[in-house]
Structure formats: C-alpha cells, structure tokens
Known about the structure:
By secondary structure, the protein is of the alpha/beta class.
Amino acid sequence: MTRKLTAAGFPEDLVRARARSGPAAAMPDLREYGLAMFGASDTPDPGARDMLDTLRLVPPVLMPRRLERLIDLGREPLYTDVALDTEIGGFSSPLPFIISALGSTNLAGGRIGNAVARQAGRRGIPMVIGENVVPSAGYGRLGEADHRSLRNRIRAYCAELPDGWGGIAVQQSTEDADAEVWNLVYSDPTALALIESGRLAFELKLGQGAKPGLGGMSVVETADGTAAVGQFTLDPVFGPDASRVLRSATPGTFTQEILHHQIVLMRNNFPQARVWVKLPPGRDIAAAAGIAWAAGADAVTVDGAEAGTGWAPLSFMNHVGLPLAECLLRIAPHDTCCIASGRMWEGTRAVKALALGARAVGLGRAAFLAADEDPEQGLLKLLDCCAFEMQLLISALGKYVVAEVGREDLWGLPPAATEPPPTPPPITIIDSKEIP
C-alpha cells in the first residue's frame, strides 16, 4: 500500500501519477481519446465559480415594454409572445443558437456528428463545421463513402434545411488552410444552393477556448504520423513504447495587420460568402474583436475558457484563458454580431450571455449529448427546452425581443461593468510587405 507522505490539501495522487506516467499525466486518459468530450472541470473552490453561474437575472417591477406589447396585441402579453428569431452573422435563425464547430474525432465525425447536422438543419439553426475534418477524413468530392467527410456533413445538414433559415460556416484552422478547405467548398456544386441563398460563411479560427495559444491536437498511430512530420509536431508523450503519439499543429501567427488583411482577403476571394472569425479567450480579446469587425467580419465567435474540445492538456482546460463572462464584459456592447460559446446547455445561461452583449450562443457538447441520447429528436427537444426557458425568462424581464435584453437585467456584475464603456482608441492598420 502506498504511504501517505503529505498533509491534507496537497495533491499527492496527482504527483504520484506524474511520477508513474511522465508527460502522459498532463493529458486526459488516452483510452478516452475520440470517445469523450473534454472541458474545464468544476473548481474545488466554491468562491471561484463561473461568473455566468453566479450572476442573477433580475426582473423590474415597472415594465414599459410590456405595456407597449399589450397595446400592440390588444391583450396582456404571454411568454409565448417573446420572439426568439435572430439574425446571426448574415443568417436568419428561429432561435439565438448556433451549433458550434464539429471536430474531426470519431465522436464528432460518426453517427452522432451526422445526427447533429440533420437535426440542426431541420430546425434551421446555423451550424459551424470544422476543424481539421478534411485533413483527417477527406473532403468527399470524389464520392468516397467515408461518412466522416466534410462534404457528407454539409449534405446531411442541407438535406433537412428549410428555405430561408440557417446556414453553414466552414471553419478553417492552420491544418485546413494547407488543405485549401475554403477553395474546395466554394467550388463544389453541393454548396451552390448555400452560396446563392447567402447561407454560406467561412470562419477563420484564431484559437479555441479549451486550449488558447495552442493549435489542434490529436492522437495518431506512430506509423500514421511520420508522413506529416513537416506539418505537425509528433511527441511520444505516452511513452517510448506506446503505439500512439501526440500530434500537434501550429496555432498560427496573428497581429492586428495580419488579422485585418486576412479578413480582407476572405471578402475579396470569396465575395458571396459571409466572414466569421473565432477568437480564443485572450486578454486582448476586445482589440481582436474590434479589428475583425472593422475589417468587415459578419460575426465574431468568442470561445470562453469553459468551452469543450476533443483533446487538450488538462492544465489548459483548467487554468488558461478568460472565462466567457469576462470576455463578454471586455467587449463593449455594440450592434455587431457576437456569438458566445462555452458550456452552453440551457436557457438561463444563454439569456445571461445575451444580456452581456452576445447576439447568439453556441451549443457544442450539449448538442452531441442530445443527439447521442436520441439521434432523431434529441437535439430538437433540447432546443425546444432551451427556447421554453428563454421565453419565460425574457418575458419575466418585461421584454419580448432577444435584442432588448441587456446588462440592466443582471445582478452581480463588477461595478465597472455597469458604467458606460470607454471609447476605444482608433485601430490603425499599417500596410507591411512582411505580411504573408
């Protein structure tokens, strides 16, 4: 039996695990790769809870908006009179929700991923597809039968999509850029209906909430990884005799000039596609979002540190990046489209994010769980439940349109958040021949 050598409060079992396994102990359990979804664990400190959980929604006593709605309707308004339809990054959606990026693991690309795509399309909810799907599973243009291919996911979504609603945002990371994913989609007849109806977007990924500062990570067989040594870092963190290695992509390098010019290139090269940008929870997130919007981005997704992932170091999931609420607080309220993602699964958290300035929220792990529970109706029922909660909550605030929810509806904000935000300095973009 292992002796207890330290006093209570010191993580002795974690230290022993590292002594046994080395670098492998810094990662989730290898046996769960491709079979589980990961994210920040609950903190043991009850005083350090997520701000979105600690904030409270506070209805007023006097409700002039309710009076206006009463006059319009000729009767007392009900919660069912709350309109949840929302314009999200150039797409029309019946609810202020999107489906967050579907990754390349077996979990995302198999039966559950396609069930998510079908149900999201049926409800007309915008969906993001990526990252690293093409490098891992192929595009599918030549008729490959691989159900994990990017084209197959697009077709599964579009087959159910009603006219006028929804849209697809194809995400591109550094791995996808090498595979020219956007060019493949933009030239594919399968995407023509989306392009002609204005329901195709390309999303530039600068990072991810669960692992800000890192690129995509996956686990591959040692023999499969050797062919990509120049593109990826291969690290035998699971031991020299293990059959699998950690494969890491570069996160990409961005400055304000590079980000600005990348968005301009996207608009010039793909004029019929919307431009979305996904940001990790960095300390300068307000500046990055401002640059993206100034360059013409239709939507900016803010991925909080609580967001999920298919694979990332435990230290990053638990200790790196700003919480989602803090990200939203740093971005001054404005009329542009901000999408918030990170541990979204029910209506209360969604309404709080909207009150902090988001236009819509992204469902990631919750969408997977719902589709796994019921591949035909699970996600639809989850969305119905969220919509029911949101209508009740927004009606209780005396409001009947999603865009009317604001910070005045929240209690528990830091004092500075209730003051008018300072005017941000102008963003100056300097042309440079060094910009790729």
